[in-house]
Amino acid sequence: MTVLILTCEQDVTADMVVARLDGTGVPVVRLDPADLPGGVALSGEYVHGTFRGHLSAGGRLVSMSALRSVWVRRPGVPATRVAEASAWLTEESTQAFYGMLRSTGARWMNHPDAARRARHKPWQLHLAQRSGLPVPATTITTFPQAARDFAERFPDLVVKPVSGAHPQEPPRAVPTSRVAPETDFSAVAFGPTLLQRRVAKRADIRLTCVGDRLFAARKPVGPDADPDEVDVRFAVSTAPWHPVETPPRIAASVHRYLQDAQLAYGAFDFAEDADGIWWFLECNQSGQFGFVEIETNQPIAGAVADWLSAPGPDPAISNGQLHFTECPG
Amino acid sequence: MRPFALNYARPAQELEASVPYAYDSRLQLNVLPDGRIAAHDYAVLRELGATTSTAGSKTHFDD
């Protein structure tokens, strides 16, 4: 039974997992849906009451019924690396590719439906509250007056994108940023704006969850840190990440969160305050983990490999076709 | 008419710098010029920031 990894070629974090799997004897097929059609090919039949499909990439051919798991890591958009790309071909290729994969009994990390829902930050905040995680006071609004009222109640605020996406043309980044006192909120009317009470943090926490395994890492805020640099991705810091224990209450809430979100993988960001409380910021359903493993030696790639190579699909779901994987000689 | 959050935008750091490894479709891994697997060379990965959260990425924003 084969592990299917969907990601781009330059994804060296995926390499960390592929290298682990190579030592286990579990067949792996790695491909980028951007190369469909061409470098990636597919075929499927719905005949005599059953589905049988095949994928090929890089000289490897795999039956879809032989897939034990699918890891959606950093896949490109289908049909975007082909000679004559078009929106129509992308839609056709997306439907064919993901539609057929959904027809298999493979386990997903993470299922596309769960992943799409999990990307919504407002829903994340709701689920975090429901799961018992501390969530900083937050508003998302297009009413300037609502923003002013919120700023009166919570004078020390940060602003961040609702989606986490960054604008292009030209490429820009919108880091979580501190909102100065007396800020003019008029422009809130021109786009949904997420304002959140700033957590005076003494450390950033990255909690990487693989199945039911948790890997928490902590990066302390330096004593000379700029208080206006609140986004750990942009802050200049030489402090390393260190492994830490996950408080049992947080662990229970995170498990509840992942279960309700139907996620097999999630990378949670918390801000630790002076009292040691971990405040939920977000859960990245496809968050990076390589930098954490490199600095902490936590075996995250191994945990991902273990999850992916665990026993395959439910036989009742699988279509019972002959399983095979061909690898290049 | 600029949305409020864009008042805090800054130029994105492009991460398209050339990398010292290349994808080997036979191994399904990126390898260094001397044949070693790139993912085993933490010094290279750390230097390139190739495994970190990529704020400003064009294609992925849930890092």
TrEMBL record, chain A:
It holds the Pfam family ATPgraspMvdD. One of its GO terms (cellular component) is cytoplasm. Residues 2-113 form the MvdD-like pre-ATP grasp domain. GO terms for biological process: SOS response. It comes from the Bacteria. One of its GO terms (molecular function) is ribosomal S6-glutamic acid ligase activity. InterPro entries: GRASP_SAV_5884 (IPR026449), MvdD-like_ATPgrasp (IPR048936). This is ATP-grasp ribosomal peptide maturase. It comes from Streptomyces sporangiiformans. The gene is tgmB.
From TrEMBL, chain B:
InterPro entries: GRASP_targ (IPR026496), Rbsml_synth_pep_Strp (IPR025744). It comes from the Bacteria. Pfam families: Strep_pep. This is Putative ATP-grasp-modified RiPP. The gene is tgmA.
